[in-house]
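Record 1 of the preview.
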Amino acid sequence: MRRIEPYVEPVRRPWTRDELQSAVAAIRAMATDEVAGRDPRRLERIKALAAELGRQPQAVRMRLSNAVHVLHEAGLPVPACIPPLPGVGRRIATSILDAWHQLDVAEDMAASKPASGPARRPWTEAELQEALSACRRMGAMEARLGRSLSLDEIGDAVCETACQLGRRWSETRRVMVAVNELADAPEGDVPADAEEAELTAEERAVLARLAGTAPSAE
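->
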C-alpha cells in the first residue's frame, strides 16, 4: 500500500529590506505615472518585480497592497491602482517607511544639483514649534518608560509629525534630529545635524529661540 505523506506547509521566505525597497520604488513609480496622467502599467510592473525578486506575482501583488496601506496610513502618496491591504507586522511596516525615506534621500540628493528640482519650502515658526514639541513629547515618553524609544516608536512619532505638517518623512526626521542636537548644544553653537537638516540661518535662529538655546543679546 502506498504511504500517504502528511502535508507540510512550505516555509515562507521573509522579505528583505532590498526587496521591500524595490516594492516601494515600484509604488512610487506608479503613483508618479498616475499623477502625470500616464498608464501606471500595474500588471507589467508586478510581473517584472516578481521576476526580479524570484517571487510569485500573487505574493508581490499582496506585498504591494500591504505597502500601500502602510504608506497611506503615514499620509504618503500612493497609486489608486493598488488597493491597500492591512495586516503587516511592525517590523515590515518600519522597513517599508525606511525604504520610502531612503528613496526620498536619493531624490533630495538629485534635486540638490543646480537648476533642478522645485524651490525649497521654508520651515515656518509654527512648524518648527511642532517639531520641537514632538521631540519633547518623545523625551517625556522616554522618562515615563525609563528607557530609550525603539526605532519603531521613533519612526511612528516622525510619521505622525510629518503627516501633521504635510511634509516628507525624511525632511521631518532630519529637522527633529537637529532639534534634539540643538537642545544639547552650547549657546551659539550650530551642531552638524542642524546643518545637515538644510535649515537656513534664520530658521536655525528661530529654532534656537524656541528651544531656549539662543545666545542672549549683549
